[in-house]
Amino acid sequence: MAEAQNIPVGSTTAGQIAVAAESTVATRMSAPPSFDVADFPVPHGREEEWRFTPLERLRGLHDGTAVVTGDGVKVDVQAPEGVTVETVGRDDARIGKAGTPVDRIAAQAYSAFEKAGVVTVPKETVLTEPIRIAVHGEGGVRYGHQVVELGAFAEAVVVIDHTGDAVLAANVDYILGDGAKLTVVSVQDWDDKAVHVAQHNALIGRDASFKSVVVTFGGDLVRLHPRVSYAGPGGEVELLGLYFTDAGQHQEHRLLVDHNVPHCKSNVVYKGALQGDNAHAVWIGDVLIEAKAEGTDTYEMNRNLVLTDGARVDSVPNLEIETGEIVGAGHASATGRFDDEQLFYLMARGIPADEARRLVVRGFFAELVQQIGVDDIEERLLAKIDEELEASV
Amino acid sequence: MATLEIRDLHVTVEADNATKEILKGVDLTVKQGETHAIMGPNGSGKSTLAYSLAGHPKYTITSGTVTLDGEDVLEMSVDERARAGLFLAMQYPVEVPGVSVSNFLRTSATAIRGEAPKLRTWVKEVKEAMERLNMDSSFAERNVNEGFSGGEKKRHEILQLELLKPKVAILDETDSGLDVDALRIVSEGVNRVRETGEVGTLLITHYTRILRYIKPDHVHVFSGGRIVESGGAELADKLENEGYEAYTKGGASE
Ligand SMILES: Nc1ncnc2c1ncn2[C@@H]1O[C@H](COP(=O)(O)OP(=O)(O)OP(=O)(O)O)[C@@H](O)[C@H]1O
Ligand SMILES: [Mg+2]
Which residues form the SUF system FeS cluster assembly SufBD core domain (chain A) (predicted)? Predict the structure, then answer.
């Protein structure tokens, strides 16, 4: 068995490289991936993959007690011409092709959903307008499944918007054909009480490129698990994330990029701002470079900006390298704090306190927002960031 | 003509659950166009005076008054003081990650001037000011003070002084940590602002070295939280030769 290099949990910017005997990414999960919820024990909270999550706030998604209520979550898809939008049964072959549930809630969602949404962009179709999927909660419990498939050389932008109040567990599959280009923006703009747990599986075709933008503002508890694997060489992946965690919110982003084929790229950048008592952000970034994945080029980064006392960040980058024949691999994680001295400095230059805070937070997110590349989303994000700040001062 | 008047200023800090009085009755008047040097040993309270004037929240004014053109400075918030015309070049400028120097300067100038400077002339103004201070133009895109050397931080403070054109500038040990070349460049910056005759300067320093470049009109010896002696430029020469011993041994500092 290949020896793995593993950068230990909890390391910050300059982690040392330790040598582990086997993959910690795989062994950290308490059960192997499965579509069947019965294959996963009910978590008790000390498992590696659950230790940061307040189980008591999951509203029963993790132990089978969350029962579907009516149509308390509405899904509306708007797609430009040329796109196929379907609602299909569980036996549709496209479902589950991009990845398998890796934890109890993802498997629960898979075991419990009734109909799946499938959006297909035929091969060589290049869209000029985004596909918009609006998921609006009206207080209900729902298990969902959504598939977005792009044929070879198709190009599309998909915006998935989550609003309202809901208890939602879902799997979302992105299947990219050879040479396809997909940008997905998933916005979690939930009301205060919402609970949202989802696994995203992206399967990247040969020479395809995938950009995922995850934006989390709202909800009581949001736990997202974007995962990527490659179906052929030449794939390029960019995973961008932005979160603004307020008092009492738990926002958890767990990522896995599995470099399972040679000559693929991945770049992960997640940034979060936190403010208020018991604001809790968790970021787990797992990047695995398998022994056969020669020529891999990967970088992952998580930055957090803590604006007030009482907020907490857990940031765990984990880079595991089974081959030395790579172009590059790096990771960084850092948490900074906007403190009274910085505030004083800016105010001593005439800048009022609220504007000083805005300057710092906008500056912190600016570069990331510019990389999104979907105009109306960029504007909305900046407005939303300002709104979050207003609430605090 | 702008005048800063400090009368019988007493200031305390909280340290280790005890209240400690640092300033024990400071009296000083600084008029526009004048340069006052405040010289004193380490720990005598010079920075405390500077921070108290700027409104740092750690320092509590227990008695006394500070006015700028008759307006009560102590009633103002930190940003209001800056907009009223007070400027503090800090002994230890603060790093502000995520905020670029160019964005910071423009936001600050907008706040102080009351309107956003016109972009074209502003870019030129900043560029020229940076050139005069021997600052590479790449500094504009770096984050405020982040990773700046000690000397670069001080130049950045003086850059702000030149751009913000305050009525009263308090320079807290702007000379410390500078080599001879940097000291000359920074002093020239201060002198350019002084030569306008529009600014009153309070130059806080431990050493007389900077006074070779910036000639003070008045020199005050600071010890034990107050001014213990005042005179003209000749007082600095006396300190150069004799040090602070006469003042500290004399019991002025508790
Ligand atoms: N925020 C604070 N908390 C506790 N003590 C303080 C604080 N600020 C100042 N002091 C104390 O007050 C005294 C004066 O400090 P200050 O920094 O004003 O001196 P200084 O004259 O500027 O010294 P230096 O020449 O070293 O810059 C010192 O004993 C210092 O430890
Ligand atoms: Mg000092």
Answer: 138-364
